[in-house]
Amino acid sequence: NVLTIRYMIESSSDADISVYSSAGKLMWRKENVGGYGMNSVDVPMDGYIDGEYLVLMVVGDEVYSEKVLKL
Fold first, then answer.
1. Angle CA(5)–CA(51)–CA(30) in degrees, nearest 5?
2. pTM of the entire structure?
3. Of all helices (H) and strands (E), which one includes residue 8?
4. For residue range 21-36, what is the model confidence (pLDDT) as tens digits?
5. How far apart are CA 39 and CA 54, in angstroms?
6. Residues 4-19: pLDDT tens digits?
7. Could you tell me if 66 and 55 are in contact, meaning their C-beta atoms sit under 8 angstroms apart?
């Protein structure tokens, strides 16, 4: 199982992306990914239990979050 995250960066900043469990445990993290334009990163979800996860992305001073559900 893979979660594919697609995102657009409109500045020269890279992104730091983290995935947290519903209990707040850091499950996966990748720093300095992407760059200006359309980007994509695959998060391996093998071994993760079914449930809700929080994807947190930091680009420069901006923070974005999205809840995802693994079934």
1. 35
2. 0.90
3. strand 2-9
4. 999 999 999 999 888 8
5. 19
6. 999 999 888 889 999 9
7. yes
Can you tell me the distance from the alpha carbon of 58 to that of 2, in angstroms, rounded to the nearest whole number? 21
Report how far residue 16's alpha carbon sits from residue 31's, in angstroms, rounded to the nearest whole number.
4
Distance CA 27, CA 14 (A): 20
Whether 43 shows a pLDDT value over 90: the answer reads: yes
CA dihedral 39, 2, 51, 15 (to 10 degrees): -20
What the block records as the tokens of 33 is 């990914």
Task: Match 């730091």 to its residue by tokens.
Answer: 16
